[in-house]
Write a structure and sequence with these properties.
Elements (H helix, E strand, L loop, with lengths): L1 H34 E3 L5 E7 L6 E5 L5 E6 L4 E7 L4 E8 L2 E7 L5 E6 L5 E6 L4 E5 L6 E5 L5 E8 L13 E10 L2 E12 L5 E4 L5 E10 L6 E11 L2 E11 L1 E7 L5 E8 L8 E8 L4 E10 L8 E4 L5 E6 L3 E7 L2 E8 L4 E2 L4 E3 L5 E8 L9 E7 L20 E9 L6 E7 L2 E6 L8 E5 L6 E6 L7 E8 L2 E7 L3 E6 L5 E6 L4 E8 L2 E7 L2 E3 L2 E3 L2 E7 L5 E6 L12 E3 L2 E9 L6 E9 L5 E7 L2 E7 L3 E7 L1 E2 L13 E2 L1 E7 L5 E7 L3 E7 L2 E6 L3 E6 L5 E6 L8 E3 L2 E5 L4 E5 L5 E5 L8 E2 L3 E3 L2 E7 L10 E7 L5 E6 L3 E2 L4 E3 L2 E7 L13 E12 L4 H28 L3
Parallel strand pairs: 1-26
Antiparallel strand pairs: 2-30, 3-4, 4-5, 5-6, 7-8, 8-9, 9-10, 11-12, 12-13, 13-14, 15-16, 16-17, 17-18, 19-20, 20-21, 21-22, 23-24, 24-25, 25-26, 27-29, 28-29, 29-30, 31-72, 32-33, 33-34, 34-35, 36-37, 37-38, 38-39, 40-41, 41-44, 42-43, 44-45, 46-47, 47-48, 48-49, 50-51, 51-54, 52-53, 54-55, ...
Length: about 900
């Protein structure tokens, strides 16, 4: 009886605690609702176009409340389309253009600021009959605005010379410029420096035609490689500028918008703490000319990628903020209450899009959508959504997700450099080498690791005292040669200690190719110099004594060349090298292949063609050079001349004299060549695999495997190719597909270049990394004969390099996952995994949850029986 009474008292106390908790929870919920509410406004979607590149989108709404859109669509064409209340009218604008901004003049005609394939920016203006193109100054981030008279103005960042960088900062520094179009061209004035080169810039005019510019400056975390952003605000006053700091310690900021009073509004995101992808805040601020009022629009936002926001202000001064939180969302404020709305459901993967308001304050948001689970038919759609009824259109339904099997493995060690990406990883003479890319204040570096322990033996960083960039490296005879840029320099290091042995400066801009042969180091680079209307370039080949760095000979190529991207090949006393150069002067490609006497650098022959040569390989009697496809017909150069089409393909040259033996043109870029036993194999960017008779170029067979990602492996009777469709094993003789391995259930997944060892294919597989939160990264071992999966091991990093296998240990380079911070995987990571202990889990994940439920239920029954027995038989 005493136990029953105690049990009853405990039950009553528990009930009271639950009741109090519910009351407190209700009070908390009411407080939250008073400041943030979820809206039941219905959003309607309409398809603007089908097919596209997921590229930038620009959106504007005219005086008749009709939306206008500029975007990158199918086949690289930049389109402009407008809604007339019943249908969309689409126009081709320019090939290979990416829109930065779309504005409408007083007649409702579009002016598009865009970036072309050659990196230059232009204005495309519609005059009622044709598109008129106009060049703009060079720079990185741009914003376009029209004043009340319709004159275009630009705000943009432009790279500062290295000599003007602040102390301790090695990159991403620029000056902010403001440009006005006049009858004689662009009138440019400097606004501020230093500023961030890559942070967004926004320009807007108030009712008095005073320009307001928002821009950023970054504060770096050298340890993690991340950064926070400071928002600065410049307003022109007479001939000068009033500059102030608006916001600081942000993870990202959006655009600036001015209301009818000329007050500046801002939106931004902050992660708590920095460098994490959870508990993010979408913030909003307004500058009234004297003080900054700052508030939270919504919190608890998961920022799994480089999440940005977009901002628009209606005529009443109310802000509308578009952001992504697993779904496309809008936060709009009316009075003091923020309304949070789901704009598009989370069953789609899509990019964040721009927001624009009509005169009545109705929002329009444009964005890309795709069914990421449909691996058979990849179809993208450009959608627009609004709170106004739009003409109905069919929206794609998602394909069900397929589950993946899980495995476990024994990880030997990991090494995390202070960098976001790893490149050119290799295991040479008992050491692991790799390059890292820039990460905030941390410069590029070459690392040397112990493959047994993963400990760092040494590293060589790029700094302004030697060179700003590390282009490449080579290892031979106990020495490591490092090629640098700005200036072009070779540094020779002891492989065991990293100690400096010697330095060589070419006097040029960069050294990007290195080959060691018979005690001689052959270097390739260029000498790039800016001129008023373009650039001139001279390729430089130099032979150095590999032990001392003494110059043996130097060769400067005629015309516009750059030996900066492909390592020379030395055979039978001859050095072969290839060059490709895109001229800013006439938007033309210049391809060159040279043969030099290895002993004195004398030119033996020189083959030139109007082609984009990208790489080459040698056969017995022929040299095979691959070309990239380039459609420059809509590229307008600085002389207002259109470019032309350059075919991709393969060209075979006689090794003895450089004469052309045969040529096979393609409408695609060739990215890999391999020759053996009289057969030349080629792979294109579009995934076309070719087998040629190496002597005459006759095609033996041709097969498409999806978008190719790099080199093919030729082994025994088979070819192995990695692509977005999977890993293909192809019969060398017939071209028949023997097997295909494609594990991921997501479209836009892709494999790395595979590695073959002892009858096993090792390959990395990456999920659709540009669609959060659906991200998968695994390394797979496949039976090379059958394609059967032997095991897989999941990693938190994007697998960027071909796996390395040695003595049963797999070495894998993984990049950071998000494009914003190092939140998910902290940084790039190098892994060592013991392959011999990897085995399938004995209990699958599918059985784990039912087993756990059963265990909990049994435990509950046991507790009930004990209480029951205790109540009947009190002690």
């Amino acid at each position: 009886m005493e136990v029953q009474v105690r049990f009853s008292r405990i039950s009553k106390a528990f009930a009271v605690i639950v009741l109090v908790a519910l009351i407190l929870l209700s009070i908390f919920t009411l407080n939250v609702i008073s400041s943030t509410t979820a809206s039941n406004v219905q959003w309607s979607q309409q398809t603007v176009d089908t097919g596209g590149s997921f590229g930038p989108i620009s959106l504007a709404v005219d005086a008749q409340n009709n939306p206008h859109v500029a975007y990158n669509g199918q086949n690289g064409m930049m389109y402009y389309t407008s809604w007339d209340g019943q249908k969309w009218s689409r126009q081709d604008v320019v090939q290979r253009g990416n829109p930065d901004q779309l504005v409408l003049d007083s007649n409702g005609d579009p002016i598009i600021l865009y970036k072309s394939q050659d990196g230059a920016r232009y204005l495309a203006s519609w005059n009622g009959q044709n598109w008129v193109f106009q060049t703009v100054p060079g720079g990185c981030r741009f914003s376009l605005a029209l004043d009340s008279s319709g004159t275009p103005h630009l705000a943009f960042t432009q790279q500062l010379p290295v000599s003007e960088y602040p102390s301790g900062v090695t990159n991403n520094i620029a000056m902010l410029n403001y440009a006005t179009w006049t009858d004689s061209g662009w009138n440019i004035q400097k606004v501020d420096s230093p500023v961030s080169y890559t942070d967004e810039v926004y320009l807007s005019f108030d009712s008095q035609n005073n320009p307001h510019i928002m821009y950023g400056y970054d504060t770096y975390y050298p340890i993690s490689g991340g950064y926070t952003q400071t928002v600065k605000f410049a307003v022109q006053q007479g001939s000068g500028w009033s500059i102030r700091t608006a916001l600081s310690d942000l993870d990202s900021y959006s655009n600036m918008a001015l209301d009818s009073k000329g007050q500046a509004h801002f939106s931004y995101t902050i992660q708590h703490p920095h460098e994490t992808n959870i508990n993010g805040t979408v913030g909003y601020a307004i500058w009234d000319g004297a003080t900054l009022q700052n508030e939270t629009a919504t919190s608890g936002v998961t920022i799994a990628m480089f999440t940005t926001t977009d901002l628009a202000i209606d005529k009443q001064g109310n802000p509308h903020i578009e952001f992504f939180n697993g779904s496309l969302m809008q936060a709009s404020r009316l009075g003091t209450i923020w309304n949070i709305e789901t704009v598009a459901p989370d069953k789609y993967a899509f990019s964040e899009g721009p927001i624009a308001l009509d005169d009545d304050g109705n929002p329009y948001i444009c964005y890309w959508v795709v069914d990421i689970h449909n691996t058979q038919a990849f179809v993208s759609q450009l959608l627009i959504t609004s709170t106004l009824p739009l003409a109905a259109s069919e929206v794609p339904q998602p394909t069900p997700t397929a589950s993946l099997s899980a495995t476990s493995a024994r990880q030997l060690w990991t090494f995390r450099p202070a960098a976001p990406q790893i490149r050119q990883s290799a295991l040479i003479d008992g050491h692991i080498y790799f390059l890292t890319t820039y990460s905030g204040a941390a410069p590029m570096a070459l690392y040397c690791l112990d493959p047994t322990t993963g400990s760092q033996i040494w590293n060589k960083t790029a700094d302004s005292s030697d060179y700003v960039y590390i282009q490449t490296y080579a290892v031979a005879d106990g020495r490591v040669y490092v090629g640098g840029a700005l200036p072009g320099t070779v540094t020779c290091l002891a492989a065991d200690t990293g100690a400096l042995l010697w330095n060589y400066s070419s006097g040029g801009t960069s050294i990007g190719s290195l080959t060691v042969s018979n005690g001689v180091l052959y270097t390739g680079g260029d000498n790039y110099a800016y001129v008023s209307i373009g650039s001139k370039d001279s390729g430089i080949m130099t032979a150095l004594n590999a032990s001392t760095g003494q110059v043996l000979w130097s060769y400067t190529a005629p015309g516009q060349t750059s030996f900066n991207y492909n390592n020379p090949i030395v055979r039978n006393g001859v050095v072969y090298e290839v060059s490709a150069f895109l001229s800013d002067l006439d938007s033309s490609w210049h391809g060159t292949v040279i043969a030099l006497d290895a002993s004195n650098g004398e030119e033996l022959w020189n083959y030139t063609a109007p082609s984009d040569f990208s790489d080459f390989t040698l056969g017995d009697q022929l040299l095979y050079v691959q070309s990239s496809y380039s459609d420059n017909t809509n590229n307008i150069n600085v002389q207002n001349v259109k470019g032309k089409i350059y075919q991709g393909g393969v060209t075979a040259l006689n090794i003895a004299d450089g004469t052309e033996t045969w040529n096979y043109p393609t409408d695609d870029s060739i990215n890999s060549l391999s020759v053996s036993n009289g057969i030349l194999y080629a792979v294109s960017d579009g995934g076309d695999v070719y087998s040629f008779d190496a002597d005459n170029g006759q095609i033996n067979w041709h097969r498409n495997v999806g978008i190719s990602l790099g080199n093919l492996i030729a082994a025994d009777n088979y070819l192995y190719v990695g692509s977005t469709s999977g890993v293909y094993c192809i019969d060398k003789t017939s071209g028949n597909v023997i097997w295909i391995f494609a594990e991921s259930s997501y479209a836009m997944s892709y494999s790395t270049i595979p590695t073959l060892a002892d009858g096993v294919i090792y390959v990395g597989w990456n999920g659709p990394t540009n669609f959060a939160p659906a991200i998968e990264h695994s390394i797979y071992a496949l039976n090379a004969m059958t394609g059967q999966k032997l095991w897989n091991y999941t990693l938190p990093n994007t697998i960027s390099n071909a796996p390395i296998i040695s003595d049963g240990v797999l070495y894998i380079a993984g990049d950071y996952v998000t494009t914003r911070s190092l939140s998910y995987a902290e940084s790039a990571t190098f892994y060592a995994i013991e392959t011999s202990v990897i085995r399938q889990n004995s209990v699958s994940n599918g059985l784990l949850m039912p087993a756990l439920v059963i265990a909990v239920f049994v435990a509950f029954l046991v507790v009930v029986l004990i209480i029951e027995r205790t109540s009947k038989n009190p002690i």
